[in-house]
């Protein structure tokens, strides 16, 4: 039994309790003699189930009560929601269709029921029907809940252009939805590289300081051969979120490739990043530069000092690699076995994790494949990670 259903049961019990109060008030007002006992006793029976920690029976009981009360539109909507949460989509759809058939619904409530029905179809995988209803609702009135559902539907189907087209036609876009538009633009910029700037420039209007956007801008600049602009974007990205340094590192490296003075400039930027985020991936890159610049002994000293403060398996592997390059006769077979074992441990570990739902991944996703949240996946730091 989930917390949501328990909450729903409590909520309905309160709603029905309120209803009982209203009925009693009405009867007293009109001096009616109709007995109110049956409704009250049903209500208390439901409450009893809750008190006795029998939430399943309580929900079943309240559902039966709500089904009997076909007059109240709000309670019928709650009832259908409850059906949907329990996976009883046919029953939820029936309630909504029954409501839509009523001639006395106001335009506002009709719109609300349409959206609820679309949600039933969406939950049941009937995406076309859900989309049709939502687009119809959207043509009548701009509503965030409708936009949110449409975005979820298109994101699931990877229909990024649809997200963009809808956003273009909106008078107002909430901050909650704007990151989703940025996400769609980034996806499109990767798929259609020749138009990447137009997508990214459009996205910048919504969330100019999105880390994901800066990353994709840097990628597009590198594609266009403009490493100076790419570097500017990456520097901005790191000031916004230092934890993303390992993700941005491969692009940073590309910025300096092919440049005449790349070595010194690259080391300078890398040292700055190291000050902000001394992760093993940055340290490891520095070790390689020190190797070229100052020799193996200097690289070994830097890495050993680093590992004393921040022990990590990737760092240890690099240390073994450096030792293997030495001329002294050591037990190379044992060292290699040790190195391979460490590599195996690293490979098997997840390198990224969603901050929202905890989803673990071996590669970077800008949208979590599990909870669909944008920019929620971040590198995992620690003994075995980056
Ligand atoms: Zn997630």
Automatic annotation (TrEMBL):
<dbReference type="InterPro" id="IPR041166">
    <property type="entry name" value="Rubredoxin_2"/>
</dbReference>
<dbReference type="Pfam" id="PF18073">
    <property type="entry name" value="Zn_ribbon_LapB"/>
</dbReference>
<dbReference type="Pfam" id="PF13432">
    <property type="entry name" value="TPR_16"/>
</dbReference>
<keyword id="KW-0479">Metal-binding</keyword>
<protein>
    <submittedName>
        <fullName>Lipopolysaccharide assembly protein B</fullName>
    </submittedName>
</protein>
<feature type="domain" description="LapB rubredoxin metal binding">
    <location>
        <begin position="352"/>
        <end position="379"/>
    </location>
</feature>
<dbReference type="InterPro" id="IPR011990">
    <property type="entry name" value="TPR-like_helical_dom_sf"/>
</dbReference>
<dbReference type="GO" id="GO:0046872">
    <property type="term" value="F:metal ion binding"/>
</dbReference>
